[in-house]
Amino acid sequence: MPLTCSPVRLLLLLLLLLIALEIMVGTHSLCFNFTIKSWSRPGQPWCEVRVFMNKNLFLQYDSDSNMVKPLGLLGKKVNATSTWGELTQMLGEVGRDLRMLFLDVKPQIKTSGPSTLQVEMLCQREAERCTGASWQFAINGEKCLLLDAMNMTWTVINHEACKIKETWKKDRGLEKYFRKLSMGDCNHWLREFSEHWEAMPEPTVSPVNASDIHGSSSSLPDTWIILGAFILLVLMGIFLIIYIRWQKGGRSTWRRYHGGSAELFTCGPQSLTALAPTALCSLSQVELQTPFQDQMALTDTAYSFAEPI
Predict the structure, then answer these.
(1) How many CA atoms lie within 13 A of 229 on its CB side?
(2) Both 170 and 117 in a single domain?
(3) 140 inside domain
(4) What's the Rg (C-alpha) of the chain?
(5) Of 285 and 249, which is predicted with more confidence?
(6) What is the pLDDT of residue 111?
(7) Rounded CA separation 49/52 (Å)
(8) Which residues are in coiled coils (predicted)?
């Protein structure tokens, strides 16, 4: 494609890239990481929860103290809101519900001694709407089930969890419970936490990534945001240079003579070098001149170019 391609196309491309960057920057995620033990010693918690905002750890909870511990600037901001009491109550209730579910299916688990259930509830928001909600279940550190709460689709990761999936899938009330928590409560808190996140003048704490948060691709790291902005600035600079050259260069109408016949064509100054192959001669045979001169002659007298008309 010649360098002087349509600036309108370049402008449309830049607009699409700007829209894509705005969408990525406006995407947020909230992840609740539950660790449930089937048995624990006295004085040790049977439920521990870590809460991540955009993969940054900002809250911790344990069943022994039944208290939520704030971490970093975002944790302190959330601690000062009315949501704090609701969040503490929810984490305790969900922890107890997950433990009951775990104890019900524990006989189906082929292991001896105490077992551990890891549950990750994830919700995502983009452009002021919920774009993702899911649950991931792992037993003794091995992933076994994934539930997409947006369309209520179960995915078996470990074939040994097929019976567990069938047991939970038959319970319509349980599926509604999972959907309500991930698309309702989680989405509500994410919307509120996002306001505090965007208002923060500096990062909360050193990012502590959630262990293999499913669907984490929706959470864009700050490095990619900076890189995307840099690329857009470079593209805008290139567009301005091309547009300026387009305006200064202008376009001209030429007449080409060949074998007694004449042909009119329109081109920019930088397109003239492409005309030699069309005239069936090499570049060495062409004597190039600017379109503002009166004539452009070829060493082969069969061809000549004139300043337009």
Answers:
(1) 8
(2) yes
(3) yes
(4) 32
(5) 249
(6) 74
(7) 10
(8) none
Highest mean pLDDT range out of 142-146, 241-245, 254-258, 259-263? 142-146
Cβ atoms 32, 186 nearer than 8 A:
yes
pLDDT confidence bin for 109, thresholds 50/70/90: confident
3-class SS at 237? helix
Residue 258 lies in a domain: yes
Mean pLDDT for 49-70 is 95
> Is the same domain home to 150 and 265?
no
Whether residues 40 and 167 fall in one domain: yes
Domain boundary among the residues 198, 218, 238 is at 218
Tell me the pLDDT tens digit for each residue of 11-20: 666 666 655 5
| 162 in the same domain as 33 | yes
Min mean pLDDT across 58-67, 90-99, 110-119, 297-306 is at: 297-306
Token pair for residue 66?
């039944």
Give yes or no: residues 160 and 282 share one domain. Answer: no
Angle at 65 between CA 63 and CA 66, to 5 degrees: 55
**Number of structural domains in the chain:** 2
Average pLDDT over residues 214-238: 57
Residues 6+ apart with CB under 8 A from 214: 120, 122, 134, 136, 146
Crossing angle of helices 83-105 and 186-199, rounded to 10°: 140
Neighbours of 242 (CB within 10 A): 16
In this structure, the answer to whether residues 110 and 199 fall within a common structural domain is yes
Residue 47's contacts (CB-CB under 8 Å, 6 or more residues apart) are: 34, 35, 36, 37, 61, 62, 63, 95, 96, 98, 99
Phi, psi angle pair for 210, to nearest 5°? -65, 140
Which two tokens mark 71? 């971490």
